[in-house]
Amino acid sequence: MAIENVRPTRLELLRTRRRIVVARKGLNLLKLKRTALIVEFFAISREAMKLRGDLRARIARGYESIRLAEMMEGPTRLESISMLLPDVLPVRIRTKNVMGVRTPRVDRGSYRAIAAPALLDLPTSVDESIRHFQGIYEVVLEIAEKENALRRLLKEIEKTKRRASAIENVLIPRLQATVRYIKFRFDELERDAFSMLKTVKRKMEQEEARGAAAA
Predict the structure, then answer these.
(1) Rg of the chain in Å (alpha carbons)
(2) C-alpha angle 18/21/22, rounded to 5°?
(3) pLDDT digit string (tens) for 13-29?
(4) What is the DSSP letter of 96?
(5) Euclidean distance between CA atoms 133 and 69, whole angstroms
(6) At residue 121, what are phi and psi to the nearest 5 degrees?
(7) Which structural domains are found in the chain, ordered by start?
(8) DSSP code of 106?
(9) Three-state SS for 147?
(10) How far is CA 178 from the centre of its chain?
(11) What is the pTM of this model?
(12) What is each CA distance from 58 to 52, 160, 176, in whole angstroms?
């Protein structure tokens, strides 16, 4: 609404002042939310960095165990064993609410290693490789969970920042300008009323003077 279209009344002045109070409270809440989201973002970011470092170490150990198993069992035997490995169970995803942001949470119970009686007679080197890569799979899922949460949190942080900026730099200044306009109009009306009263008083005094002269 343009300032010129605002009715300069006391009711409108009170209403606008109340809107400023509400806007400032909303701004404070948005800033608190943004701070909490940033704290959560960096906490998850640290966890993700630690997991990525762990993943690199696990992958190195995993490939080393594969090379060792291949040297001991031969590539053909290793490929035959890989065909007998059980399928990976589907991953179940739950959600976690962080300051109104729903982030994914992988159900760890859904990707535990599957018992395979047919593989109990595996050579030690092959069994060691399987365990290494099962651990890699778990870490990859954890990293995917953290990365997805980071993207969602970052999106919400930017959204909250834009809303806070709009309130602080657009809405509140506009409401304050409206208050100043209404007060300015009040001052103008008061000056006009005062000038009119002086004019009326002067005319009355002139009428009284003429009446006294005529008597």
Answers:
(1) 38
(2) 90
(3) 889 999 999 999 999 99
(4) E
(5) 13
(6) -95, 20
(7) 7-177 (1.10.287.3240)
(8) E
(9) helix
(10) 31
(11) 0.70
(12) 10, 38, 60
